[in-house]
Amino acid sequence: MSEKTKILIFIDWFLPGYKAGGPIRSVANIINTLSHIFDFYIVTSDRDLGDEFPYKNIETNKAIRRTNYTITYLARGNQNIKSYKKILKSLNPDKVYLNSLFSFRFSVLPLIASKKHIFPSSVILAPRGMLGKGAINLKKTKKSGFLKLSSLFKLYSGITWHATTQDEAKDIKNTISKKAKVINVGNIPTKPKNYFKKKKTTETKFVFISRISKKKNLLFAIELLKGLNTETKVVFDIFGPEEDFDYKKQCDNIIFALPKNISVKFKGELSHDEVENTLRNYHFFLFPTLHENYGHAVFEALSASCPVVLSKNTPWKNLEEKKIGWDINLNDKEKFQTRIQKCIEMKQEEYDTMSENAFNFAKDFFESSQAVKDTQKMFEDE
Length: 382
Fold this sequence. Notes:
This protein is α/β, with parallel strands linked by helices. The chain contains 14 helices and 14 strands. An eight-stranded mixed beta sheet has the order 3-4-2-1-5-6-7-8, sandwiched between helices. Strands 11-10-9-12-13-14 form a six-stranded parallel beta sheet, with helices on both faces. The protein has helices at 22-34, 81-91, 104-114, 133-136, 140-152, 166-175, 218-226, 245-256, 272-279, 296-303, 319-322, 333-345, 348-368, 371-380; strands spanning 5-10, 38-45, 63-65, 70-74, 95-98, 123-125, 160-163, 181-184, 204-209, 234-239, 262-266, 284-287, 308-311, 325-328.
């Protein structure tokens, strides 16, 4: 029996971490569905996003075997080219998969090290939406400078790019090179479980699950609630790690000025295992993000029978005609507020239909997805 193809994955944060959200889920779903075909090896940080201290009871700088993958948690002093060369030489992988564009420690350095051990075409880089307009405009000067330097030194010459949407494929071609080799393979979704019926009372409950940062546009969501014309009780609960203290403070200032009938609270962080049961306690998922390459949180909301109110800056489009939510231009604040008002005034019968539609859409999307087969082919192609 021939050996399985070895896939070496570099990612800034991985399980048991959860604060980085989508990228962790993307890689976990790849491994969960394809570990019977490939041998996966992960190199990652010894702590979660933003944490000062390493994970407890996890040995660092040593390969640890899990159920369906092998993982090495590197201490900060070992996140360097010397360590990566040693790992590459020892493992001799068939493919190297990078899960970031701008990460110096877990993308740039591993890429430099990898080019000395395997063909550049065997290196696959998933930028995870970092080249989208809404994402690249944050810290634009710094990112533009990095891209110019990487072009000057031909850092990405010969590698393969993993885009998860047609828009991202265009972003890569427009930003990196028209000649860049780009494979468009969608993210592997998490399998939905069961439809869950929710009671639509006079209290309408909205939820936000993501990092507290400018990119996720939480401040805009809170400002939308401030402009509502309603005396009905509205709850908006926010779950996620606090990534930007000053941004959180701006949100707090708006919350302080809200009417008494509108309750907005920060509820702390959630591990991925807690997300589904949390979503089942809410009627609508409110997420006016500046940019999402995929939006695992959106799919998880739909899977939990939770209709969504989104910006147009995600791959989830034409939601109103599907009767599972709305995708709205961020320039149209009035339309956002009109749709939120509709959510508040919605009767039980209409909500039941919309909620069940959301679950069925997620279920059908998962069952019809070609992402597993396409991801397998991406790793098998020479």
